[in-house]
Amino acid sequence: MINQTRRHFLKTSAFLGASASVGFSLTGCNGNSETESPGLRFAVLSDLHVYDTSLGKDGSAFESYVASDRKMLEQSAEILSAMVEKLLAVDGLQAVIIPGDLTKDGELVCHQKVTSLLQPLRDAGVAVFVVPGNHDINNPDAVSFSGETTTQVESVTASKFAEIYQDFGYDAAIARHDNSLSYVAEPVEGIWLLGLDSCKYSDEDNAESPETSGQLTSDLLNWISDQLSSAQAQNKTVFGMLHHGIVPHFGSQPDFFSEYLVDDYENVGKQLATSGLNLVFTGHFHAQDIVSADYNEDGSLMMYDVETGSVVTSPCPFRLIDLDTASGTMSITSTDIDSIDSMEDFATYKESFIYTGMMNLYKVMLPETLEKMGVTLGEEELATLETLAAALHVAHYKGDEAADQTTLAALTQMINSGDATTAYMGSKLYQLAVDDGLADNSVSLSPWSENTAMIHNLLHRIQQTA
Questions:
Q1: Which residue of 82, 320, 394, 405 has the fewest C-beta atoms within 10 A of its own C-beta?
Q2: What pLDDT shows up at residue 448?
């Protein structure tokens, strides 16, 4: 069983005399005090979903696609450009990492657009590292739009992906996995980035539609273990990035959104942590959320999963990370894009867009879920449930969600209704509504504290007696 210790720790940290921080260990943390310890200032962007509007933006086919989604595709390039501009103003920025879904649906022209939009970072001396997402390779949904019709356009293979992004991680790799697009890079001396390819994009997987779920194969896990052993032998600090989550970001995610986690996530996460990888940056679900898994329930074997929201989904965030191995800290701050040149009030537009998109999602998803359960609800009851679920999901996207007392009371009433279906849905929505863990947007982590295990053991005892 995983014990997820999230914002509860922050509330307890005052009792411990600590700042808003939580400890975890990383491979290679025992440095030589006589040598200078490395540091790294880097940014995290995720799920760019860049769309080149030369593929069409008018007509019912494109309008229908956008209406069924929650991504601001038409504004994607402009939002990313605004984000790059902000990053170029960050003093001392050394690297940017992007854990997948670079394009709308893997269109070659969209990949080429991505590299052109990111190039100013490289021109300024900022290293950029990418891995693929489930939309990026061998995607049958790579199409252009014209009026009522769509036309297949060229997507990319795995080898073409590595070629396109040779200047964005692959040429800088100090090790490559033979059977995936995974690699190891060293952004600064002493710190290794493990870029992991968790996607399924074989012809069989993507025969009709892109496969949403992800995996770390046994072959890849063995390769990762070898890289971590090498890192430990060389006293390197290691963190990872991949598209899919390693740790559930809310209690009902494995029930309703399991495809956003790697297959067999608990055993995979435990294996990675045992091998020495305890920190990963992920995307895919488009939410700002930080969560931990305590596999031994005593703080001795941890995994931290820092998920970053989508560039093209409100609130359009990016993270700035200051990693300092000398002091053993890593601070995380988050910034949203609230304005773009082409729109007078982008902040209001993006809020309206995400809520409308989420309502459309739940109007399809909830009836399908209930039908599988053999349950039929009246129109009014179903509409109420859809509205509540959409609002909670939007709040989760922003991070640091805190449902009001009226919402919590309504969910509690559902849980205690006496009706099995109502109670089940109430409990699952409650798990989405309540985020009792680490702060999601701005937080300071202490990766190399010698007291990590002691603190987690104390927290565990407090929780057991609470």
A1: 405
A2: 46
User: In terms of Cα–Cα distance, which of 279, 286, 284, 246 is closest to 265?
Assistant: 246
Let me know the angle formed at the C-alpha of 338 by 334 and 342, rounded to the nearest 5 degrees: 145
Percentage of the chain with pLDDT > 70? Answer: 87
Q: Tell me the DSSP string of 191-224.
A: EEEEE---B--STTTTSSS----B---HHHHHHH
Q: Residues 285, 374: one domain?
A: no
* Confidence category of residue 4, pLDDT binned at 50, 70, 90: very low
Domain identity same for 406 and 455: no
Query: What is the per-residue pLDDT across 161-196, written as a single tens digit (0 to 9) for each?
Result: 999 999 999 999 999 999 999 999 999 999 999 999
Residue 374: the pLDDT is: 87
Query: pTM for this structure?
Result: 0.90
Q: CA 155 to CA 192: how far, in whole Å?
A: 31
SS (H, E, C) 153-177: CCCCCHHHHHHHCHHHHHCCCCEEC
> What is the span of the domain harbouring residue 307?
7-340+441-460
> Considering the domain boundaries, does residue 323 fall inside one?
yes
Taking alpha carbons only, the member of 381, 388, 416, 425 closest to residue 403 is 388
Distances (CA, A) of 113 to 25, 101, 153, 282: 38, 13, 15, 23
